[in-house]
Amino acid sequence: MDNLVSFLNAKILPFANKMGNQRHMTAIRKGIISTLPLTIVGSFFTLINNIPIESVANMLSPYKEILDIPFRYTVGILALYATFGIASSLAESYKLDKLTNGVLAVLAFLVSTAAPIHVTDNVKGVIDAGRYINIANLSASSLFASIVTGLLTVEIYRFFKVKNITIKMPDGVPPEVSNSFVALIPAAFILLFFWIVRYLLGFNIAEFLSMILMPLKGVLVGNSLFGGLLTIFLITGFWTLGIHGAAIMDPIVRPFWEMSIAQNMTEFASGTSAHHLSTIFTEQFLQWFIWIGGAGGTLALVTLFLFSKSAYLKDLGKLAFLPGLFNINEPIVFGAPIVMNPILGIPFIVGPLVTGTLSYISTITGVVPMMMMRLPFTVPGPLGALMSTNWSIPAFILTCVNFLIDLAIYYPFFKVFEKQQLEKE
Q1: Taken in order 105, 133, 63, 278, is the CA torsion positive or negative?
Q2: Chain segment 340-371, per-residue pLDDT in tens
Q3: Angle of the 245-269 helix axis to the 143-162 helix axis, nearest 10
Q4: Which of 19, 79, 328, 398 has the fewest CB atoms lying closer than 10 Å?
């Protein structure tokens, strides 16, 4: 065991930390997470537009189209916001002007993915002649294009800045004016580069990346039980090694997660039943059905600690219960600890695999709907499951059943660990 710990500390942990702190990975993570408030707010408008109370639904029916607008301008153009966030974050890491790079990245993204549609004739009562952008091109389905254009724009801007290929203003010129002139040459190159690639060469970045990466989405995030359990295993496995599982997996699965929940929300907002949405293994599926109390379903272990004969475990249970109720489990993961602890590490991994399998079966058999809403991760599990599945009572019950399963799986390991603690005390 000591040799394993030494190997992990010497080889695995430095690599994991390096990956987690790599500037481009960090920029992607920060940029996408920056859109979180928008998707949560947009989700609530979806919920309001689909309240399962007939009298309320009838009252809101005349305003259905108006109530749909906040969703379209949050979740509906998610990739546009992510582009700005990713570019701004990467620019900040290089100590470049964040605002300029964010704006240039949005320009690159729009040129690359949102070809304007030219309507030449008025269609009375439907549409006027003019140029239009299909906002579906700006949705989460173009998230990989937003990542590439965001990162590439900053690297192009940085190249021109490092090589001094810029217009310099005299001293005394306000910084905002000076930054605008510094950006003129890079902006012209960025516009021409992405315009040539998209329209003269006919290369669509969004379509190309989707073709290349969508098979990976089907493995890690989608409707495959194997893929879902693999994601669960990797996240919990990294945690037991002392490595933040979500932080390691985030750069890999986060774009897929965002695309999947946005697609589910869009389909639901368009009238599709929550039972017939596109993706089962969204991040919300993990949050509300499996991560009860946090990764590893640790609220069950915290509950067992509350009734422990060990003074230390009982005190730790009291300390960790309130955070655990809101799905924050660092106190129990590092306090018990679960990290590098084979006794508690086994149920930490096995429990979510069992509840994940049960939740998957419950979904494909139609017992519970798929996730159609995004909520803050701090919402208690049963309530989050209820709201995120269009007020499904079976989803609420499933979360409670999964909690009991976690209790049963943790219990024998808890008793062994408790015995060890009592001997120490």
Answers
A1: negative
A2: 788 899 999 999 999 999 999 999 999 999 99
A3: 130
A4: 19
